[in-house]
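Consider one such protein record:
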Amino acid sequence: MASDREYTSGLLRASARAYASATLHTLHASCPALIDTALPPTSARPIDDLEVRLLQVSASVAVDRPELLKDVLGWYKIAFHHRDVPANYLEATLQAIEKTL
């Protein structure tokens, strides 16, 4: 029998694309200009970016290590800064993921 965290992680992983789509809808409703212009043309599409972030949440939950997610979010802050992604993009996406889930 799967533990609660294994079950939750599996649901997140299996439904990551659907959750990413719902999150993108949430972002378009709350800050359309940000989501339409934040990522440079050479970056992943917003839905792909959100799906990866959700998969990272799933992985963190699977091993019960929230610090893994904290570390990867720190990396994102640096990477986004160097790619001229607006500073509020990461926070806005995380809030939208939270609202969606």
